[in-house]
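Retro notes, structure queue

What went well: the backlog is down to a handful. What didn't: a couple of records were mislabeled last round, so from now on we paste the full input next to the output in the thread. Example, using Putative secreted protein (Por secretion system target) from Ulvibacter antarcticus:
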Amino acid sequence: MKKIYFLAVAVMAFTFAANAQFALDDFEAYNLGQMGTQAAHWDTWSGNPNTGEDITVVDIEAQSGFQSGLVGPGGGSPEQDVILNLGNKTSSTWTVKFAMFIPTGKTGYYNLQGQLEPNGGAGSGAGVFNSPNLVFNNTQAANGAPGLGGAYPNVTDPDPTYSWAYPENAWFDIEIFYDVTNLTWQMKVDGVDVPAQPFDADATVGGIDFYAIDANNTFYIDDVLYVEGAIGATNDFAADNFKVYPNPVQDILNISSKVSVDTVTVYDVLGKVVLQAQPGVISPKVDMSALSSGAYLVQVTIGDASKTIKVIK
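Corresponding output:
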């Protein structure tokens, strides 16, 4: 739901545990149509799934695999008003990353929510806004434009308080780093940092609200990753120092490295650890033969550096 300022600044979970996080959501495991109750971390503003507010699972566009989540044009009753539940975190640092696709000339929208309701939804219709309206191609603003995104206290403001560029009709990454200790969040759009911003309302990482802001709204979401700490820490492996193959894999995944690999952890699409090894050798092999077909995240750690790669089996 979009944020409107007047005199005051006016989260969601099914049974989403306080320490819950998910390693990868690429939408491949879901049935097409309304998300409904297929995943605990996807909810709606009202907390009532299967009512038309849900994100729609489609096979029209996808960054990986064949499916993604769609938030289409607004103006319906009800409008799509989707909550990505981030678990009401009140300490530590957290990073959420997702791929976004906005067709040429269309609009995209989300905002960052604070405390979510324990029984689902944003609560009493008001929500807890920890950010302004974050709008891509804001057609309600006088100076909004395709390829330009911005932060708007009111969506009808002529200019954003800060802005960023994004590619139209192409997949690009959004990465948001939350520092709960210092009550700041920083967004990276298509690899470019937006200056860090303060939490606007409370001290909680509650969720992200993806909203069908108007009739021009249409955007897709794919490959959602949510972890404690930072993604791609400062000393990530260089591309020429680290490779995995084959991908897709049948049984044995080869890890090519120039130094000894400390830990290999494999996550399924729900963030569950399904395989873990501590090879302690250069270029180890990982036996994935016991895993079922599907998408996995393989996290390789060498010393203080780690890298996570999506692997299809």
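Agreed that this is the format going forward. Reviewer comment attached to the example: The longest strand covers residues 219-228.
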